[in-house]
């Protein structure tokens, strides 16, 4: 039976939500991992991290609070833009991200398979 556009949209949203809700090693969510991976190479301004991940500033703020409370991320004022916030992964945050990454790839592949299956439906 073909999916109607609203049904297809709901199925896509559920797939993405299910992927993000899957617990990863180190008690990370997929979005936590993505933020930490963005910061693993070097500290970045919060706005550029939000833009790179396609999330809003308020969403990134909530994620940053959660990660900072767990000592996986640090925040500091940006030197060249006093309004900006610089985000940095802590050594523990970077280590947890590296540990969780292989498992996250499996979760993402499963989600992509579900999306391909949805797209293949008549």
List keywords for this structure.
single chain, 122 residues, Arc Repressor Mutant, subunit A, 3 strands, 65% helix
Number of DSSP E strands: 3
- Termini, distance in Å? 7 Å
Portion in beta strands: 5-15%
Shape: elongated
Q: Mean pLDDT, as a whole number? A: 89
CATH H level: which superfamily? Winged helix-like DNA-binding domain superfamily/Winged helix DNA-binding domain
**Could you estimate the helical fraction of the residues in percent?**
55-70%
Q: How many DSSP helices?
A: 5
- Helix vs. strand class: mainly alpha
Instruction: Report strand order across the widest sheet.
Output: 1-3-2
CATH fold naming = Arc Repressor Mutant, subunit A
Radius of gyration: 17 Å
Q: Mind describing the biggest β-sheet?
A: 3 strands, antiparallel
CATH architecture: Orthogonal Bundle
Low-pLDDT runs of 5+ residues are none
Element string (H = helix, E = strand): HHEHHEEH
Secondary structure layout:
Blueprint: H1 5-21, H2 30-40, E1 44-45, H3 46-53, H4 57-69, E2 73-77, E3 85-89, H5 91-120
Antiparallel strand pairs: 1-3, 2-3
Describe this protein's structure:
By secondary structure, the chain is mostly helical. The protein has one domain (5-120): Arc Repressor Mutant, subunit A (Orthogonal Bundle), CATH 1.10.10.10. It has 5 helices and 3 strands. It has helices spanning 5-21, 30-40, 46-53, 57-69, 91-120; strands at 44-45, 73-77, 85-89. A 3-stranded antiparallel β-sheet has the order 1-3-2. It is elongated, with a radius of gyration of 17 Å. The relative contact order is 0.18.
């Amino acid at each position: 039976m073909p999916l109607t556009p609203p049904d297809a949209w709901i199925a896509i949203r559920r797939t993405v939500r299910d992927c993000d809700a899957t617990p990863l090693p180190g008690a990370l969510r997929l979005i936590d991992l993505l933020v930490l991976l963005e910061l693993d190479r070097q500290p970045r301004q919060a706005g550029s991290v939000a833009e790179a991940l396609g999330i809003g500033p308020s969403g990134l703020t909530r994620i940053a609070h959660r990660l900072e409370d767990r000592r996986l991320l640090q925040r500091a004022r940006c030197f060249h833009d006093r309004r900006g916030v610089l985000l940095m992964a802590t050594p523990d945050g970077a280590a947890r991200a590296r540990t969780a990454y292989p498992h996250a790839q499996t979760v993402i592949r499963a989600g992509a398979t579900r999306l391909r299956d949805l797209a293949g439906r008549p």
